[in-house]
Amino acid sequence: MADLIHLLDHKVRLYQPEQGFRTSQDAVLLAAACPAQGTQSVLDLGCGVGGASFCLLWREENLALTGIDIEPLYLDLARKNAELNHKHATFLHADTLHYRVDTPAQRFDHIICNPPFFQAGEHTASPILPTAAARGYLQDNETLEGWIKSAFENLVSKGSLTLIHQADKTDEIIRFLGKKFRSTEIIPIYTKPNEPAKRVIIRSFKDRKSPCTLHPGITLHRPDRSLTASANRLLRDGATFETVLKEMDRL
Length: 251
Known about the structure:
- The structure is a single chain.
- The strands form two sheets. Strands 3, 4, 5, 6, 7, 8, 9, 10 and 11 form a nine-stranded mixed beta sheet that branches. The protein has a two-stranded antiparallel ribbon with strand order 1-2.
- It has helices at about 25-35, 50-60, 70-85, 130-135, 145-155, 170-175, 230-235, 240-250, and strands spanning about 1-5, 10-15, 40-45, 65-70, 90-95, 110-115, 155-165, 180-190, 200-205, 215, 220.
- Helix content is about 30%, strand content about 25%.
- Helix 1 crosses helix 2.
- It is of the alpha/beta class.
- It has a single domain (about 25-250), classed as Rossmann fold.
């Protein structure tokens, strides 16, 4: 059995397992930050049931999108979700840490990912294996650095990697990006005003050499817990971060 949920104010519908990883607003935010356009190719690294994939395809329906995941149940649901949303995408069973395209010509223009948040030993693993694997790494050889290395190997030169993660891991992410990724952009995501950022969007480009950019943060909720105007644009209207940041500049 599967639950049916909605994203982007019912513009995207998704089946997800009754038990296991739950699709959240992180998927919507991740899609909003990806700069892919037209018929470019995109890899959703660790795609789950396709939450970020289908939010991105709603905005740019002609993208050549591939999702990979190690959990067969998620992939089955992702394929059903492609039919449900009338979108074309390819979903493959593969280990995100070891997946590599066969030739340089098959590398992707853009990669998106929402990696597990916790290193092995930093969290109490769920008894439900797919949930445990989505929440945190289960083996010492599974690392965030490995996800970033996989992204680098599968990207074209000047291609983008966009990821969403816990804000307190920003320093680690920047360190793992190293000198291979440059032109890095950081967008803090605040749950409420006057609180530290809980999430961060990081977008970086392979082989570019321009300086890092720290963008104004996005606050999702007002003190009364209602969505801010910027959050409404991102989470309900499907606007991109570029659009929302420009709108904020005009205020």
